Amino acid sequence: MRYGKLKMEQLPKLIRLALAEDIGKGDLTSILLLPKNARGVAQLTAKEAGVIAGLATAAEVFWQVDASLSVKLLVHDGDQVKKGTVLATIKGRVRPILAAERTALNILQHLSGIATYTWGYVKELAGTGVVLLDTRKTLPGMRRLEKYATLVGGAKNHRMGLYDSVLIKSNHLTAVGSIREALLRARGSSKRIEIEVKTLAQFKEALQVGASVIMLDNMNLLILKKAVALRNSFFPDAKLEASGGIRLSNIRDVAKTGVDYISCGAITHSAPALDINLQLKSVSFK
After folding, report:
1. What are the tens digits of pLDDT across the range 100-112?
2. How far is 53 from 49, CA to CA, in rounded Å?
3. What pLDDT digit, counting tens, does each position of 240-257 carry?
4. Is 217 a catalytic residue?
5. Coil, strand or helix: which one is 138?
6. Hey, what domains does the chain have and what are their CATH numbers?
7. Considering 39, 136, 156, 169, which one is annotated as catalytic?
């Protein structure tokens, strides 16, 4: 499985904030129960099958708590693992291991859940040539991580934010007044320009004005097929993106209409966490 490397300058800051939220002034339980010099070995283990994402990020969590911890990654992001697979081992002082545990697991479970859920959608598209896109429906502060996880799962990133491409939506059309006027104004940008339409009439207008990428929002299969036929007959270079109401149960049918892309918010906002745990395997008080 191929995917892009995670590049995120904000990651250390995000981890610091997450650790501060969880640890605060200190892990009271571990401080009371464990001597400072207690050392141990812990394992991260997948409790169910899935696609792993965020393992290096989890390692960074442990290192931020204690840079002397030894973290050995036994699988890679993008690997499909079976239940019971040991993902990593952590060696060093037990107090920092336990202090970092929850934050590391929260990130790893969440991102692996997104990658696994995304992979399920990608499998449904096999052989259709349709590309699955993610959306901006992400948790605040977690967007780059979550979009990284969709890449690991086999999807492609749509725009990262409002700043890196133009997407004209219904509220923009209400404010501007027409599809034609909106597209004419947007042509001053050097960024990718896309427009969302909700009816076949709007779609025809967008084609006539020369839209290069058109999002077909919440259209049924019959309307999607009509839109594809119109595109193929008169504007074959235009790219079509189906969006809205996309589920595992219908994504293949949507793909078979002939669209180029399918965008799906569910792969980030509705992905269940992958069950992963951390277990101490040995503790030494010497």
Report:
1. 999 999 999 999 9
2. 13
3. 999 999 999 999 999 999
4. yes
5. coil
6. 11-120+272-284 (3.90.1170.20), 123-269 (3.20.20.70)
7. 169
